[in-house]
Amino acid sequence: MITDLDNMFSNMVKRSKRSAIREILKLTKQPDIISFAGGLPAPESFPIDDLKEIVNRVLYEDGAASLQYDATEGLQELRETLIKKYQSERVNCTIENLIITTASQQGLDLLGKAFINLGDKVICGLPSYLGGLTAFMSYGAEMVGIPLDKFGMRSDILEEALINLKSKGEKPKFIYIIPDFQNPAGITMPKMRRLEIIQIAEKYNVLIVEDSPYRELRFEGDHQPMMYQLNDTGNVITLGTFSKIVAPGFRIGWVLGHPKILDKLVILKQSSDLCTATFVQKIAAKYMQSMQFEKNLKQTIKLYKERRNVMLQGFKKYMPPEVSWTEPEGGLFLFMTLPDYINADELLLKAIEKKVAFVIGNVFFADRTGLNTLRLNFSFVNNQKNREGVKRLAEVIKEEIAIYKQSKTIVNLLKPKDSKSLTSI
Fold first, then answer.
1. What is the DSSP track for 163-224?
2. Measured between alpha carbons, how far is 381 from 375 in angstroms, rounded to an integer?
3. 4-28: pLDDT as tens digits
4. What is the pLDDT of residue 8?
5. Relative to the CA of 360, which of 126, 251, 349, 351 has its CA 20 to 30 Å away?
6. Distance from C-alpha of 272 to C-alpha of 289, rounded to nearest angstrom
7. Of the candidates 186, 185, 180, the residue with the CA atom closest to the CA atom of residue 213
């Protein structure tokens, strides 16, 4: 090995870091650990039997073509199927507005590659999806975090940030938003807030990247229109994926956007992977066209709603009053806030000792705040493990609160009562 290897790596490699979530998942591989850490769909939701039949059909009817290269833009059959689905929801789009990617993570990476130069600003939520943050920061983006409220990204603070950047002669490349069952917060942005943000983005001539991997997984409440659907100027770019609604092993996603933007992404994708796997695209297209797709999606939604409810019931039964959490209407995650004197980093180590795991919340904050927060996934573990995991986590949190209160009591006992007692000694 050459002696100056570290100096040979590119600046991008030096800026890149291992995913904190992936590293935590390594710690949770032991079978006795109940893990709420990963963003993992339930294996029970995978349509294995349906896919066996479709795989055989694809090989029998279209074997040679399914094993060949295809267009970088994606398999036409799959693109047309996805567009028909969007059009059925009254989304104004054609096949020219959609390309296939190797999961939506490639879409995030291509957007970073297409738009970001070293030092460029990108606006995101506080907190926001770690995979998006790392993709953009690997290209040198400086993230500008906007706090969330119960309706998502705060539009008033967003406008203040844009005014501040403009006063410095700066303009962000785009605003990154996860409007439906946000990862990690679990918050859904209502139509009014979406419109506010779109209007602000248009006012300051800024693109919006709408990351939408969980949209179809709604358990309750009213479906909200896509930001892409609410915008008629081509300023919104939407990312979708099969990872959460079919299976992450497909590694198929898509980007919906203006043809001028998609053309640049296609050029960049050509140098990345030439095309997304043709065989899997054909399987995905046939599966979407079958009646089993919607049937299985409904079963998945029912399963996740039940698991979310079990977790929420456990919180209400076991968690101390100092702890709060979000109650998502869909998706895979909820977010917990601890008292500000508890560090989730330190709590994780003690939780793993009790054989339960989560993801520390501050990795989702571009400004590295949120030290007393954590993300919990409710989709993966069954109800029995869910209940037991919540009980273990509550025990660890209660112990930390008790330690803090005890230390405060000791400090108070050691404090002199008043100035008189000092002079009388």
1. HHHHHTT---SEEEE--SS-TTT-----HHHHHHHHHHHHHTT-EEEEE-SSTT-B-SSPPP
2. 15
3. 888 888 888 877 776 666 666 666 5
4. 83
5. 251
6. 29
7. 180
Residues 101 and 152 sit within 8 Å (Cβ to Cβ): no
Give Cα separations from 215 to 186, 188, 260, 342 (angstroms).
11, 9, 25, 33
- The confidence score (pLDDT) of residue 424 equals 36
What topology does CATH give the domain 8-46+294-401? Answer: Aspartate Aminotransferase, domain 1 (3.90.1150)
Structure token digits, residue 316: 């209400």
What pLDDT does 14 receive? 76
- Whether the CB-CB separation of 368 and 377 falls below 8 Å is answered with no
Residues with Cβ within 8 Å of 369's Cβ and at least 6 positions away in sequence, in order, are 126, 362
CA-to-CA distance for 133 and 141, rounded, in angstroms?
9
* Dihedral in degrees, nearest 10, Cα atoms 324, 227, 260, 286: 90
Calpha distance 109→138 (Å, rounded): 9
The residue among 422, 409, 106 whose CA lies nearest residue 269 is 106
Which residues have CB under 8 Å from 88's CB, separation 6+?
none
CA distance from start to end of the chain:
71
Query: How far apart (Å, rounded) are the C-alpha atoms in residues 173 and 183?
Result: 21
* Token digits of residue 394: 């509550």
pTM of the full structure: 0.93
Query: Which stretches of 215-291 are DSSP H helices?
Result: 227-230, 259-270, 278-289
- Domain limits, the chain: 8-46+294-401, 63-290
Q: Nearest-5° angle of CA 96, CA 98, CA 101?
A: 140
DSSP string over 107-141: HHHHHHHHH--TT-EEEEEES--HHHHHHHHTTT-
pLDDT tens digits for range 89-139: 999 999 999 999 999 999 999 999 999 999 999 999 999 999 999 999 999
| Block residue for tokens 């054989």 | 355
The tokens describing 290, both together, are: 């079958």
CB 248 within 8 A of CB 219: no
Among the four given CATH numbers 3.40.640.10, 3.30.450.20, 3.10.170.10, 3.40.50.920, the one describing domain 63-290: 3.40.640.10
